[in-house]
Amino acid sequence: MTAPTTEQPVDQAAEDTAEPPVAEQAVEKKPTPPDPAYLAAVLRHRLAMKAQLDAAAALFADVNVRAEYLLDQQYKASKSTKADVTLGDDDDLKFGTVTRVGGEAEAEVTDRTAFAAWVRDTYPEHWNFRIIPARTEVVVDQTFTAAVLAAVNSSGTPQYADPDSGEIQEVPGVRIVPKRSRYWKWLFTRKSKRQPLDGRSLVAAAVEAKRLDLDRPVAAPAPLALDPGVADPWSETAPPAKAEPAAE
């Protein structure tokens, strides 16, 4: 007779799902701090450059206003629309140009009531009305309106010459409205066979050689009062133009 065994039966399912021994977790490596001297130098460099940028931005804003004022003044005096920009040294080397880009304007009907009354009294064949429930609407021939606006654009004044009689008439309710302000376009010179450096590089070389001082404003030969009355009216009546990139 076989003696009874004391071994427990093996649970195969439990054995299959048993978790393996937990592996030893990797210890996270502590970050290495930057070199203190290098960190201090980079922080110093960054903030010092910001201080220089702020100072340069303020100086640029002032010289830009003065430059455009003087260019406008020159344009009014001589109709000059372009100027070379030079380093002002012995060679008077050119490193850029500045060109005036004129504003744009076109005639518009700004007072429809006055314009419609003029058409009714002067050219009734181009005037009509239509009845809409609860109101009456005046109608002006759109083709005639376009012809009047084209004539105003052509003459530059709110006047219309009668095509039959040639009589010049003042057109009420119409004026020339600025659409884009004039602006000055600044460009650096490009590299060439005669000059291997572009305009930006010429400036950098002149500054490094201390032939060009950009840290102080240019002294005027006489006190310069920026008289708003001399400014180009485009800058006050038209929306500002998009800034032009200083392309090379």
Q: Report the biggest beta sheet as strand number plus sense, adding barrel if it closes.
A: 3 strands, antiparallel
Helical stretch count?
6
Spans where pLDDT lies below 50 across 5 or more residues: 229-248
Secondary structure: number of strands? 9
Shape: elongated
The rounded Rg comes to: 38 Å
Q: How helix-rich are the residues, as a percent range?
A: 25-40%
> Numbering strands along the chain, what is their spatial order in the largest sheet?
1-2-9
| Helix/strand class | alpha+beta
Mean pLDDT equals: 82
Q: In whole angstroms, how far apart are the ends?
A: 109 Å
- N-to-C SSE series? HHEEEHEEHEEEEHH
Strand content: 15-25%
In words, what does this structure look like?
- The protein is α+β, with helices and mostly antiparallel strands.
- It is built from 6 helices and 9 strands; from the N terminus they run H-H-E-E-E-H-E-E-H-E-E-E-E-H-H.
- It has helices spanning 12-17, 36-78, 112-122, 142-155, 199-208, 234-237; strands at 82-86, 94-101, 104-109, 127-132, 135-140, 159-161, 168-170, 174-180, 183-188.
- Strands 1-2-9 form a 3-stranded antiparallel sheet. The chain has a two-stranded antiparallel ribbon with strand order 3-8.
- A hairpin with a 6-residue loop joins strand 6 and strand 7 (168-170).
- The termini are far apart.
- Residues 229-248 have low confidence and may be disordered.
